[in-house]
Each structure stands twice: as C-alpha cells, then as structure tokens.
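Quick review question:
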C-alpha cells in the first residue's frame, strides 16, 4: 500500500470511529451489531482478462443489513499519463460458507484518465445478507464500459458496517400514521394496533324458491251476432247545379252534378172539366129570369103567411 492509500485508510477509520483491521490470511474478525470494520485488499490488482476477481478475504459477517460507507481504488504507473481507460471499475461480492454469492454491491466509479496516479473514494451502498458471510471478493467490471484495454485497477480497501435491528420497539408518541387505505404506515409503530385477522363469513345459502304454477281458466266469449242492417236506398234529388229540362230530366246526363238514375216523372191525374154548353145569350133573356125569381120568392112568402093564419084561427 502506498503512502496516499494509508492516509485514506486513517481518514476512513476516523470517520467511522473504529480501527483498521487487515484481514488477509489472518483469522477473520467478527463484526458486532452496531459496529464497523475495514477490509484491506493488500495491493492486489484486477486486470482484463485476468484476474477477474481478487480475494476471497476471510470475514465474519452476520445475516442482516450491511452498509459500505467507504471504498477506495487506485492505479498508478508513469505511462498512464498517455492512456485513456473507461472501465477501471469493480464491485464487492459477499460469499457464503458453501462458496455461493449472497449479495453484490453497486460498482465503483471509473478512475480519472491521463494521470500518473489516480484514486477514487466513494460509497457502495447497502446490501442485505440472507445468511452469514465468511468471505469478501472484489470483482472486475470491464464490461460496464468496454474499450479493449486491460483497465487495470487496485481495490484498496472497504469499510463495512452492520446495523442490528432494535431489540425493542421505540416508545410511541401516541400517534399512529396511516396510509390512504387505513393501514399503518409503519407496522412496527407501537402506537398502531396489531392488524386483526381477516374475518371469514360463512357462505350464505338461500333455499331455492319454488313458485307454484298459476293456471287460469280459459275465458270463452259468447259469439256476438248482430243483425244485418239494411239501409233503404237514398235517392238524392238533383242539385240546383244540375240543369233540368221541362220534363224534369237532366239536360246533360253526363253532368257529374246530376244523379245517375233520375227519378221517374211525377204523373198528375187528368183534370176533367165539365162540358160547357154553349147557350144562346141574348139581351132579352136576363130580365125574364129576374122576374121569374122575384115571382117565386113572393109566392113562397105568401104560403108561409097563409099557414101561420090558419093555425091562429081556432077550429081550423
């Protein structure tokens, strides 16, 4: 490790409040809950195509959440001032007891180019171990930005911190924050009641409903027989718009205002006048008739008077 790398290691230890632990071939140190440790890769180098990884460095990490607040990498040689390499990058793998990879961190950044000595210091995020890790491995990542060069890089060291879950929930503040659906925003909040198990309601079975058939007696309507109606023929007299002749017949039988069948002419019974005898009338005849009438009137009056006189004489 060069002098600059040792200075960065000392700064990382001061930030995390712990000492530096070089693991290498010596027995691995256990990481207690709530503490951190720094692992040194002791100047090993990653090259493309070989070696793709360096390690495995012995560690003793419990299952849980591991954060990687500090990671450093470097590369230095005189000819580097004229070289551009785009993938001097690596990530960190956590190895289980059976040799399988439990978790992988995010990758580092590429080293600055055209410098005789280049360094990078940064954060590799957080991983979750499903089981304890016994080894730590740095993996070369020339595939992220391949350029056909070796992309040599030295993983210098990493700082690992284990955050143990609290043994007891923190005291509540009397307020349970809820989501929009009414569930607690933080299920571990002591102020939130434990969710109730879902209530299963027994299925509801309704008896089938049977409607009795409805039978209606047939309705028989008696036949209705109406006597035929015989209307006497109506004969309309000719309208004033139908000009008639002296005999009462239409002058123009084709006139649409004239009836089709004209009425038969009305026959008047013959009038018989008594025959008049032609008597000779003279001027002397009239006085004779007048005198005869007066004589007969006077005779009648005399006879009436004679009759009354006899009834007035006794014994007659």
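Suggested answer, residue by residue:
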């Amino acid at each position: 490790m060069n002098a600059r790398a040792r200075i960065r290691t000392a700064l990382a230890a001061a930030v995390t409040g712990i000492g530096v632990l070089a693991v290498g071939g010596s027995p691995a140190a256990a990481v207690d809950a709530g503490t951190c440790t720094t692992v040194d890769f002791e100047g090993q180098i990653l090259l493309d195509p070989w070696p793709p990884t360096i390690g495995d460095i012995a560690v003793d990490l419990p299952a849980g959440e591991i954060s990687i607040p500090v990671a450093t990498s470097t590369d230095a040689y005189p000819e580097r001032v004229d070289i551009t390499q785009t993938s001097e990058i690596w990530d960190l793998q956590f190895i289980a007891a059976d040799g399988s990879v439990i978790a992988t961190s995010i990758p580092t950044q590429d080293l600055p180019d055209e410098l005789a000595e280049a360094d990078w210091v940064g954060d590799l995020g957080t991983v979750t171990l499903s089981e304890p890790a016994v080894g730590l491995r740095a993996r070369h990542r020339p595939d992220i930005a391949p350029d056909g060069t070796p992309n040599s890089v030295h993983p210098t060291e990493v700082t690992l911190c284990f955050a143990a879950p609290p043994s007891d929930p923190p005291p509540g503040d009397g307020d349970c924050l809820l989501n929009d659906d009414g569930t607690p925003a933080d299920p571990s909040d002591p102020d939130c009641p434990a969710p109730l198990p879902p209530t299963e309601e027994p299925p509801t079975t309704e008896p089938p409903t049977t409607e009795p058939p409805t039978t209606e007696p047939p309705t028989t309507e008696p036949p209705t027989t109406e006597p035929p109606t015989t209307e006497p023929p109506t004969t309309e007299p000719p309208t004033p718009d139908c000009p008639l002749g002296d005999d009462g017949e239409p002058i123009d039988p084709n006139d649409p205002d004239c009836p089709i069948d004209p009425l038969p002419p009305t026959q008047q019974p013959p009038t018989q006048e008594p025959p008049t005898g032609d008597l000779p009338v003279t001027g002397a005849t009239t006085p004779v008739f007048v005198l005869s009438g007066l004589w007969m009137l006077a005779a009648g009056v005399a006879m009436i008077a004679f009759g009354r006189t006899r009834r007035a004489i006794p014994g007659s």
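Why it works: Residues 285-312 form the longest helix (28 residues). Residues 3-163 form a domain with the Jelly Rolls fold (CATH 2.60.120).
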